[in-house]
């Protein structure tokens, strides 16, 4: 199939899948599990790493991918949602999957579905598992979409689980407190399989579930560490194993924690491999689009997909040392805790430019968002705009006074900002290249964020 025809066919498939099921989020493994078994329960690789949590999943997957590549493993990584192209969700050796392959995989799922209704996420996840199972991989890295226990990714038994920091998000689906949410995330654990926890003190519900299943638990600072060795160098330790590496551009202290967890996972999953004593420059180019990503000359733009208070706190901490306070272009869905996010970002902001977002029942206008956050940001100016583009145009004018622009609040917000920045001639997002960025389908689908 020619590239243009494949892209068109993929776009058509995505549009069909987006509206086929009654509700976009339907946490139930019975339907997709039946189809999965009809497909032969395809295992994506010899070894599987599953990553769940509230924040930091995408960054952790990126570090895992870089490390697997450096160790010479045949690997693939599945993530969601995407920013600019659906193809971003599945990467083999770091390269996005072809549209023609995705079309074939969607057809394979359709051939076994019969009268079972699948959500967009269920159908596309099954398709990606099927593609990975045919690639003779050493390792598959699977990012959980929402929760853990009832996520389609959890159809696959993991060999090692990573649980990133857990905060309050998706409470309508996962529970109202960290303990309940942690129990849902811990649904990815399997008997006797290791758990790497990014948090030093994860919710007790996670540790209790690990104990019930006899899972070896690796806690940051207790069982593994990543410290400064000397200027520009880091030293990772896990038991008697030591790995030295050139310090990559971490883009915030939280990224060191994600990198440390990825190192712990790889050293645990492949303990008999010849030690990688010095990673040299291998991780220096690792980047995750939309995670505190910098664009343009000074004062420039920061784009982050964060959408909850935990992410806002991390971003504020990362930018706390900046010389200039930022203009915040904020676009958030109606079910998110906008007040807490704005309160956390306010100390570094000079103004909030609230943008409207459209996403079905979670849509929220810029005016509604502005009304919600005014009481949380004190005397800071709060302006409302119908779209992200409108807010960015105003921010561009105001940034001429020397203030950088922070774009925050949703994958939808980041997606629109990256497209606008590309149109303005700014640097392309990491991972995008050439004509593929405009040729590949960009139907967003349910984001679950």
Features:
six-stranded mixed β-sheet, 449 residues, alpha/beta, eight-stranded mixed β-sheet, 37% helix
- Number of helical runs? 15
Helix content: 25-40%
Q: Please give the order of strands in the largest beta sheet.
A: 4-3-2-5-1-6-7-8
Overall number of strands:
17
Structural class comes to alpha/beta
Largest sheet: 8 strands, mixed
Gross geometry: globular
Q: How much β-strand is present in the residues?
A: 15-25%
Radius of gyration, in angstroms, nearest whole number: 21 Å
Cα distance spanning the termini: 33 Å
Instruction: Pick out the low-confidence regions.
Output: 428-440, 442-448
Describe the structure.
By secondary structure, the chain is of the alpha/beta class. Helix content is 37%, strand content 17%. The protein has 15 helices and 17 strands. It has helices spanning 3-20, 29-38, 57-70, 99-113, 120-133, 171-174, 178-185, 204-212, 253-269, 309-319, 338-345, 366-373, 388-399, 411-423, 436-439, and strands at 47-52, 75-78, 90-92, 95-96, 139-143, 160-163, 195-197, 217-219, 224-230, 233-238, 241-246, 293-295, 301-303, 326-330, 349-355, 382-385, 405-408. It has an 8-stranded mixed beta sheet with strand order 4-3-2-5-1-6-7-8, with helices on both faces. Strands 12-13-17-14-15-16 form a 6-stranded mixed beta sheet. The chain has a 3-stranded antiparallel beta sheet with strand order 9-10-11. Strand 7 (195-197), helix 8 (204-212) and strand 8 form a beta-alpha-beta unit. The chain is globular, with a radius of gyration of 21 Å. The two termini are 33 Å apart.
């Amino acid at each position: 199939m020619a590239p243009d025809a494949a892209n068109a066919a993929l776009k058509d498939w995505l549009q069909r899948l987006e509206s086929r099921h009654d509700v976009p989020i339907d946490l139930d493994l019975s339907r997709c599990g039946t189809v999965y078994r009809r497909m032969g329960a395809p295992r994506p690789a010899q070894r599987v790493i599953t990553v769940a949590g509230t924040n930091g999943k995408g960054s952790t997957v990126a570090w895992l991918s870089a490390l697997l590549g450096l160790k010479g493993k045949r690997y693939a990584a599945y993530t969601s949602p995407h920013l600019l192209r659906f193809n971003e969700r599945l990467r083999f050796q770091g390269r996005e999957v072809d549209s023609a392959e995705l079309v074939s995989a969607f057809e394979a799922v359709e051939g076994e579905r019969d009268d079972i209704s699948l959500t967009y996420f269920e159908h596309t996840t099954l398709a990606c598992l099927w593609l990975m199972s045919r690639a003779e991989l050493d390792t598959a890295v699977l990012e959980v979409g929402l929760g853990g226990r009832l996520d389609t990714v959890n159809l696959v038994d993991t060999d090692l689980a990573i649980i990133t920091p857990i905060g309050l998000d998706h409470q309508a689906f996962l529970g109202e407190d960290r303990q309940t949410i942690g129990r849902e995330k811990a649904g990815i654990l399997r008997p006797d399989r290791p758990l790497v926890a990014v948090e030093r003190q994860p919710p007790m519900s996670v540790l209790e579930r690990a104990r019930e299943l006899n899972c070896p638990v690796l806690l940051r600072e207790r069982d593994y560490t990543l410290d400064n060795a000397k200027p520009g160098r880091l030293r990772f330790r896990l038991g008697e194993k030591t790995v030295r590496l050139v310090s990559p551009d971490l883009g915030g202290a939280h990224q060191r924690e994600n990198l440390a967890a990825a190192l712990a996972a790889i050293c645990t999953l492949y303990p008999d491999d010849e030690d990688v004593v010095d990673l040299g420059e291998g991780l220096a180019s690792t980047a995750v689009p939309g995670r505190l990503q910098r664009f343009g000359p000074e004062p420039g733009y920061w784009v982050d997909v964060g959408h909850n208070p935990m992410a806002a706190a991390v971003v504020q901490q990362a930018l706390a040392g900046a010389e200039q306070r930022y203009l915040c272009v904020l676009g958030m869905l109606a079910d998110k805790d906008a007040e807490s996010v704005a309160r956390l970002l306010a100390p570094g902001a000079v103004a909030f430019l609230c943008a409207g977002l459209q996403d079905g029942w979670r849509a929220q206008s810029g005016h509604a968002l502005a009304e919600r956050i005014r009481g949380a940001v004190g005397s800071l100016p709060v302006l409302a705009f119908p779209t992200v583009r409108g807010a960015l145009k105003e921010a561009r004018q105001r940034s001429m006074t020397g203030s950088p622009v922070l774009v925050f609040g949703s994958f939808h917000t980041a997606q629109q900002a990256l497209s606008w920045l590309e149109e303005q001639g700014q640097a392309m997002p990491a991972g995008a290249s050439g004509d593929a960025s405009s040729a590949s389908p960009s139907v967003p689908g349910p984001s679950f964020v």
